[in-house]
Automatic annotation (TrEMBL):
Residues 4-60 form the HTH myb-type domain. CDD domains: SANT. GO terms for molecular function: DNA binding. One of its GO terms (cellular component) is nucleus. The lineage of its organism: Eukaryota, Viridiplantae, Streptophyta, Embryophyta, Tracheophyta. This is Uncharacterized protein.
């Protein structure tokens, strides 16, 4: 599917993922406005950035939480309640 600018929309193909990975290996992250051209993709820069950051980046942790992470989350929720800003801020500094 294409939008009015002629850019592709919708699900990414395996070929597009490969092109984006190769571009990131060669040029690294940043200058997202240049990524679609450098990678040879007919996608907008925001779509390329989000695809890389949320799905393709090699250091993304996938899978279940470890038992110590679950314990930390439960303790933080008991301490802070359902205040997302404080909760995420505390979790970030306790884990990293």
């Amino acid at each position: 599917m294409r939008n009015t600018d002629g850019l592709r929309k919708g699900a990414w193909t395996e070929e597009e993922d490969i092109l984006l990975r190769k571009c990131m290996e060669k040029y690294g992250e940043g200058k997202w406005h240049q990524v679609p051209v450098r990678a040879g993709l007919n996608r907008c820069r925001k779509s390329c950035r989000l695809r890389w950051l949320n799905y393709l980046r090699p250091d993304i942790k996938r899978g279940d939480f470890a038992s110590d992470e679950v314990d930390l989350l439960i303790r933080l929720q008991k301490l802070l309640g359902n205040r997302p800003v404080l909760f995420s801020f505390s979790f970030f500094f306790l884990v990293f």
